[in-house]
């Protein structure tokens, strides 16, 4: 176990961390590598919240889950598997347990969105005989990290007639890619004297998308008919490819994301590197844990939401009523004949009695930046799933702090199942910090604890996670979802 409690059930007096790898037999080490292959394939495919929802919906259907609407009129019974989708940006997966819903859920919640570069509503313009997209970055990024990268464009466009076009260009070997340019060091004297936060302006993150002019057209008087020939050429291409006009950008959601697949990192392939691991690594492991569940005492659920990186607002974020509304539907569909308790009260009891893991990543100890983490309370890559009793910042502001009783319950669940886990916090006191969806789950009165994968280079275009932690996180979620409240 990561938190060493001794051999033969005898507790050690000292607290000691051990690497996951040391606790695994040869066969399980092979499982770690195999699990990472599936995860890399997912990470390479699902680069937006919409694409992630599509992936989990297809996987759920293959695992015997059905849209809730198909079951609503038949009633729900133990073993039934249903899902809810919210505007193609959030999904709730549910396996009905043997106990009544009033006793609560075993819930794992994570977020599907990741920092990125969004296009503005009117993005396309021509300047210096080149064509670019105006952008607005999404989430907490270091802007300079997004310069000179090969970018892919993913998203959707709703045409004037209501047709939905899916966009994904820059991922195939023969696709073009896009980029945000940077200033050459020979002329960057003024730029390099600025603070890192000021060296690149948000309005300067413009994506280069074209540089060839449309065929020249002239009016009767011989003057050039179209002054913006380069922009016109791109509009012609977009119309050929997607049937778009410039006005259709107003009803589009396009995202600039790093192009290319997730990769193994290191000579020994110990790590996975790729875009969007915050928090799709927890989404993937949580969903895989639920899909592996054969039966459960309590109803088990995985909730994957949008907009966490910008405060969990909007109608697809954790602060929306999506989860509450879906739970109300479950309660009504599960009412036994002759039940006298008002459904609204059952729903409230369910929320209050739910036990939840807020599945989100945390900062791993980086030997290049040791000074921002406190050595005794930092998580380390390769030492198992990371539990954070609290997050937040500035005196635990904006956090949900788990009580000792729930911490003890999770500890026992993990210990009894041989889960390798570790405890940590997000940086030194007053160094910074951050929040998760835990605080928005906690408002219902449920017990909730942050539990996820440690990362290096969090929020960068290329984040790094240890394969052993990814695997152990799935095992941790699996035993939690299978557990029942005592």
UniProtKB/TrEMBL annotation:
<keyword id="KW-0479">Metal-binding</keyword>
<dbReference type="GO" id="GO:0005737">
    <property type="term" value="C:cytoplasm"/>
</dbReference>
<dbReference type="GO" id="GO:0006508">
    <property type="term" value="P:proteolysis"/>
</dbReference>
<keyword id="KW-0031">Aminopeptidase</keyword>
<protein>
    <recommendedName>
        <fullName>M18 family aminopeptidase</fullName>
        <ecNumber>3.4.11.-</ecNumber>
    </recommendedName>
</protein>
<dbReference type="InterPro" id="IPR001948">
    <property type="entry name" value="Peptidase_M18"/>
</dbReference>
<dbReference type="GO" id="GO:0004177">
    <property type="term" value="F:aminopeptidase activity"/>
</dbReference>
<dbReference type="InterPro" id="IPR023358">
    <property type="entry name" value="Peptidase_M18_dom2"/>
</dbReference>
<dbReference type="Pfam" id="PF02127">
    <property type="entry name" value="Peptidase_M18"/>
</dbReference>
<keyword id="KW-0482">Metalloprotease</keyword>
<keyword id="KW-0378">Hydrolase</keyword>
<dbReference type="GO" id="GO:0008270">
    <property type="term" value="F:zinc ion binding"/>
</dbReference>
<keyword id="KW-0862">Zinc</keyword>
<comment type="similarity">
    <text>Belongs to the peptidase M18 family.</text>
</comment>
<keyword id="KW-0645">Protease</keyword>
<dbReference type="GO" id="GO:0008237">
    <property type="term" value="F:metallopeptidase activity"/>
</dbReference>
